[in-house]
Amino acid sequence: MAESTSLSPAEAFELLLSGNQRFVAGTPEHPNQDATRRAEIAPAQRPFSVLFGCSDSRLAAEIIFDRGLGDLFVVRTAGHVVGSEVLGSVEYGVEVLDCPLVVVLGHDACGAVAAACAALDDGTVPGGYIRDVVERVTPSVLAARAAGRLEADEILAEHVSRSVDLLLDRSRLLAERVAAGTAAVVGLCYRLADGSARLVAARGLDVGVTAV
């Protein structure tokens, strides 16, 4: 089945959730992964969601959400840190490709979050441009600790939620789409062991958020 960008934000979110549930259950359908789909989308792409996630090799979006070719417009950086290239890519997905949903996807045992914690605790700071990644994650760790959220899952959820807000704060285009009800931005935390993705932040979508 070929989805189109006429989906509402809620419908797009439900597609992702149902795909993740199939993945967790071990019953994936592998939609849109055949030669017919390949030929269908060759002239143009019509993804239903922008997926902004961590670059971790265990976080392959099309697999963990059981989707296929042309379904997701994927942007990935270590620690899902936000820069101008990320903002431009997300805006392209929303403005040009008309995606109704933007997802920020973090995961447990994130190396970037662990490195930021280590930098704060014992001053261990990596060199090169890895340091820039760590510095961009550090405010999330500080905010979580200031709020008394000291567990790893709580720090991760804070970082995902702050990334959601940062996208909206820095992108007027995205904020206007969310305010108009034509787009939503959500934050998900992925568990490596069982493959589940839980909702920790939602902007423009009336759904329950998991407490951390």
What does this entry look like structurally?
The protein has 212 residues and is of the alpha/beta class. The protein has a single domain (9-203), classed as Carbonic anhydrase (Beta-carbonic Anhydrase, Chain A), CATH 3.40.1050.10. It is built from eight helices and five strands; from the N terminus they run ααβαβαβααααββ. It has helices at residues 9-25, 35-41, 61-64, 84-96, 111-122, 130-146, 152-170, 172-180, and strands at residues 49-54, 72-77, 101-107, 184-190, 197-203. The protein has a five-stranded mixed beta sheet with strand order 2-1-3-4-5, sandwiched between helices. Helix 3 (61-64) links the parallel strand 1 (49-54) and strand 2 (72-77). Helix 5 (111-122) packs across helix 6 (130-146), helix 6 crosses helix 7 (152-170) and helix 7 packs across helix 8. The protein is globular. The model has no long low-confidence stretch (mean pLDDT 95). It catalyses: hydrogencarbonate + H(+) = CO2 + H2O. Belongs to the beta-class carbonic anhydrase family. This is carbonic anhydrase. Its EC number is 4.2.1.1. Zn(2+) binds at residues 54, 56, 107, 110.
Chain-wise SSE layout:
Blueprint: H1 9-25, H2 35-41, E1 49-54, H3 61-64, E2 72-77, H4 84-96, E3 101-107, H5 111-122, H6 130-146, H7 152-170, H8 172-180, E4 184-190, E5 197-203
Parallel strand pairs: 1-2, 1-3, 3-4
Antiparallel strand pairs: 4-5
Function: Catalyzes the reversible hydration of carbon dioxide to form bicarbonate.
InterPro entries: Carbonic_anhydrase, Carbonic_anhydrase_CS, Carbonic_anhydrase_sf
Pfam families: Pro_CA (PF00484)
